[in-house]
């Protein structure tokens, strides 16, 4: 069937599904099989991850005051700092 052939082509393709000639298929998910959907999903996650900052954010807490110290430290952080990794 056409569906099988399309999925074989998409599995072998090295271009991102949303950027290639088959981008229209993103709107017709019934045509795509699970492997192609998974590949597309991971590519989209990588795209999102590229836009995020990769800096680490240190949070210093005392063992006997974990809740209070972590709340105080995180409350002081800006929204941009909160996007960093802990």
UniProtKB/TrEMBL annotation:
Keywords: Transferase. GO terms for cellular component: Golgi membrane; nucleus. GO terms for biological process: base-excision repair; Golgi organization; membrane fusion; protein polyubiquitination; ubiquitin-dependent protein catabolic process. InterPro entries: E3_ubiq-protein_ligase (IPR050409). One of its GO terms (molecular function) is ubiquitin protein ligase activity. It comes from the Eukaryota. This is E3 ubiquitin-protein ligase HUWE1-like. It comes from Geospiza fortis (Medium ground-finch).
């Amino acid at each position: 069937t056409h569906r099988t052939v399309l999925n074989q082509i998409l599995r072998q393709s090295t271009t991102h599904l949303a950027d290639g000639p088959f981008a229209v298929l993103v709107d017709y998910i019934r045509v795509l099989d699970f492997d192609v959907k998974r590949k597309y999903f991971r590519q989209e996650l990588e795209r999102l991850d590229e836009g995020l900052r990769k800096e680490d954010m240190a949070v210093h807490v005392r063992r006997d005051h974990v809740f209070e110290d972590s709340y105080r430290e995180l409350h002081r952080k800006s929204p941009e700092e909160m996007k960093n990794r802990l």
